[in-house]
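HUMAN: You are asked to prepare a plain-text protein record giving the amino acid sequence and the backbone structure tokens, both parts labelled.

ASSISTANT:
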Amino acid sequence: MGSVNGKVVLITGGANGIGAEVARRLHGKGAKLVLTDLDEGVLAEVASSLGGDRVVTVVADVRDLAAMQAAVAVGVERFGGIDVVIANAGIGAFGSVLEIDPEAFKTVVDVNLMGVFYTVRAALPSIIERRGYVLVVSSLAAFAAAPGMASYDASKAGVEHFANSLRLELAHRGVDVGSAHMSWIDTPLVRESKELSTFQEMLAKLPGPLKNTTSVEECGETFVKGIEGRKSRIYCPRWVGLARWLRPLIATPLAERDIRKFTPDLLPRMDAEAAALGRHFSERTDKLEKR
């Protein structure tokens, strides 16, 4: 792709975190943006901060195919088509498989996996027509699991393989497909997860670089370079790529030894903390879900 100047980019989850940061950087390089999110107020603030006539916003739920088709239609009408789609919207929930509310588990999978499918499905006709680029936002969680995060881990592993399959389907059409894999990034999703003292405790106990958090600015820069290069995989920080190759070893009892030691004590306390709060999401996500 090289330059994104003049390219039309659809970003879901564009109001916060990685989505908003990537939007700012792409806009600075001359891209035209179609930003979607459920958080109407913050989405409007992002658009206002960018200014100009190269940004259009659509309040849309990625779990609704018709809503995503309508968002794409807005971009096509305004800018003529979609060159890049970044399926970025995602949420997390906390709690063991035994205790988490099944509806909370389903919501995470619906947003993180089905939402990616609906986003890509809606944008694909225009992407194919313009021989564009698809970026699916997965996670380090696709390679390495953590207790109390089964819904998130499963959904992010699912979208990684979705991207792998899609890449094979679209290569002959001149469309490139990438998946992005990040460790902990300083986004609202991660900061809000730290509302739980047990989540903070788990993070501190993780081995090596798994406990570290990377700035959203560094992540945004890495994403933009990957988009410009139409990369098949984007890693932030770079060491996350090593985790992909070490995946068979990561899931062994030896590699899991330290996590297995603290899980019997920490996981019941995480469930108790979630029960006391009356929710398995962050406060912001919970409010958006109840609108």
Observations:
- Residues 8-289 form a domain with the Rossmann fold fold (CATH 3.40.50.720).
- The mean pLDDT is 93.
- Residues 34 and 75 are 6 Å apart (CA to CA).
